[in-house]
Amino acid sequence: MAIVDHSGSESESETESSSSLTSGAHRDAVAAQTARFVTVVKGADLATPVPTCPGWTLLDLVRHAGSVQRWFSVLLRQLVQEPPRSREVELQLPADEDGFADWLTASAAEAADAFAVTDPDAPMWVWGADHHARFWVRRMLFETLVHRVDAELALGLRPAIDRDLAADGVDEFLVNLPFATPFAPDVAKLRGSGETLRFRCTDADGDWLVRLRPDGFGVDDQDSADTSADATVQAAAADLLLLLYGRLDRSADAFEITGDEDLLARWFANSAF
Known about the structure:
40% of the residues lie in helices and 10% in strands.
């Protein structure tokens, strides 16, 4: 049985299809996901271990999520044109643990203020595929969403992820993964001679064919959707998203897997984000 509740939509901003989510929808979803995150952790024991982030507690998780939001907000306000030399920003951390839930709310407010004064189409430095400010909005969204899920799992709650938002997250992960080698060096091992892996959503618009090449890998154009693949993973969008992020194992009943198991093993051994 899947650990994710696929029913219903979390908010109106998350009901658009994965192919049509706008930067505005991503901005709204950052606020919605943070609000859900805050609801989960407010009043919880922040010393609770987070099994999906080994070695972390809920306090570490909340501090990380809020710090990322504040750092990305600085990048957006400055429209940086080259890799920053430091990730040091003013975090304004609370004086005690009881203040961290409200601090996370304030972090999202910092992000909202940055979004309000930033053109999402403005060119800027990013580490991924889309060299515009909107990259950071979308990246912030899925950082927040996945860690909200981590918090829920740590507290024994069953996460819910809107299917279209999850499909957008699968796309964001796969499109940007080839550029992640500076902080995920094992990604560089994903090379090949044309081997293909298909990731397909069973409940949303989403079908990605990843091709391994001698010089790297990437997602083929969507007009290759009917092309056969060497290995295929099919699942509900939410489960597929959590699989790619290592929060679910492909042996779970949620997944229909066919094809080259060795190829899949190599992918999952080297695609940690």
